[in-house]
Input
Amino acid sequence: MKYTFADYQKMADYIRERTSFVPLVGAVLGSGLGDLVNQVKVEAIIPYKDVPGLPVSTNKAHKGQFIFGTLNDVPCLFMQGRLHYYEGYTSEEVTSPIRLMKLLGIKYLLLTNAAGGCGANFHPGDLMIITDHITSFMPSPLYGNNLDEFGPRFPDMSDVYNADLTNKMIMRGKELGLPIKQGTYLQFAGPQYESKAEVQMAIKLGASACGMSTAIEALVANHMGLKTVGFSLITNLCTGLSDNKLSDDEVVAMGKKAAKDMTALFVETINILKNDNDR
Ligand code: HPA
Output
């Protein structure tokens, strides 16, 4: 256990001294959504490295800053770049910005990522709305003392990805003609891609996509009672399901190619959250 509730309050105080903007939606921008911020009316930008106690992203492709601003008049707090376990941080550290965003006022969390597809009929370029996840291969971010201010010691995990909002995303995405799939996301620690046998295991466990992020973030959000939704861009088929050798280049290239579809689903999701009257 590294952080106390008071540590998170200190981080929030630091940000509050710099902006009074209160976001409704927190959003983690995965590969492919970097340019979305061009559509945002920006109010404030705060790099992770400036926030006392917050870990710093080491991934070159990820920027590492909070962007406060409105998208379609919805007050949002964007994480441009996320922290990953494979960078050497604990699960607790990786998910600390999610805790901070909760203290800054968010009610909803929108998670996005790039993932390998292993579901039947999945294709690179598909957008998978996440309906559930498997975090069993990751150390729990809740390990250690429970921070009762955030949530219970033994939180229920039966509805991590809000079913009502998720169904609306699936319906709306299909209406817009986007290549929508749905399924369970399995988080591995990375940074290596899966072996062929690991992919076969993932399929047997019921996963439709494998990646190296997101599920522990959703777990922590659920611990705090945030309404969470998420989607993956399927950048490639998982190891052994095509003849390709996997590389980051392929993932980044598909992120660029599918940016338009991802952005469309993202903006539509923001509208769905804005119109949620169960708040
Ligand atoms: N596996 C894990 N993470 C990924 C993949 C993959 O195939 N593609 C993009 N991120």
Notes: The two ends are 32 Å apart (CA to CA). The chain has one domain: 5-278.
